[in-house]
């Protein structure tokens, strides 16, 4: 879902058998008993088994019947020594009566790191979707599932992936979570799963696409390059939904000029939406063009100057910050012209006793503590997550017939354990401390010049603001010809623009058209 997890951490249960110590003299073990004991100790543990559940269904998309097969379960992944290391969870939807050699296939996942794919699954991509009321608390059942008229199953098959530690995916054997929980280990494990699936289900000849949301942008950038260089798998296209692509320029509050500048336009959009500006501009898009111009000509330059800025320049910047964000010049002055999103979300409507959503800043919720400097919860996540959890768990068990005692981990809280470092293609094997996959995407586009890129971003997203997305795309190191392979689409919605009623149709059509144009 987003780069900072909000739900409960993944629980690990360790059973310890403690020996009983006695002062009495130990009696010798009879030979027969000793042999039995040694045999039990050397006996191999049962190997983990992958399980899948298959069912057949029909929906109508665009007035036409679509018959499909759903396969939900796990694939057993092994290491180079052929030892089992993970049960990798997935759900695949395959339209019946199609030629697999020409039928496109899309591999999709959410982000986190530590987020399962249920958000995309039940929000927009799957053939069934949860009914979510916009700008409302979807916390009270009964929750409703409907056929998803926005599904692209009429155009392509779909495989929803849950990386290890999320969903039903688990490390097995002697493997530990740390073997998967890091930028590069995650990239490698997801690439390995995709390759394994292509072989297991005979989809090598199919046109191939990968879709990633949020942190899934970093994953997709790395997977695209890794598939090409380590497995010789060339993708037809990648779809980046609200993508997080570069840690430094994609994060505010680190005292970096790019990061702090890139959040500013979404601060302005949020203030506009909540009518916190004086004067209040009548239309969003002309206002944002004005703000973007101000960021480039006034705000970013003064951050770059730092202490060299004159008092007059600083005062002009403070006046602009107050005018465009709805937060007072005094607060911005105390913050030294820089503010991360958590402070902004708490400050914007503090006087009204409200805090703002980070995932979708159109949402507002109560503020338990009016003196807290940063927000303690996300009104969007708390309003939507219960419906997603309930509908997904009911759906896979009641309609897809999954029989598993495992808990489906929607948000596994892996961020704190995540290795953020990354080996970029241009660093001669040296790790950079924080991931930036723009070089990975740039190299993949250069090596595979027919690959196309669709980028989708929302104006009210403060997890991965549209300014960070534009900045990242502008810094791809590709030729002007290759830059034409990138399509950037904007929505008047938040991080999960696909659950916004006014954006669902556009979101779906952009993906369908992208697949149609690039599946040849």
TrEMBL record:
Positions with biased composition (Basic and acidic residues):
33-50
One of its GO biological process terms is: proteolysis
Q: Where is the signal peptide?
A: 1-24
Does the UniProt entry include the keyword Protease? yes
Q: Which UniProt keywords apply?
A: Carboxypeptidase, Glycoprotein, Hydrolase, Protease, Signal
Q: Where is this region: Disordered?
A: 26-52
Q: What is the protein name for this chain?
A: Peptidase S10
Could you tell me which species this protein originates from? Answer: Steroidobacter agaridevorans
**Lineage of origin:** Bacteria, Pseudomonadati, Pseudomonadota, Gammaproteobacteria, Steroidobacterales
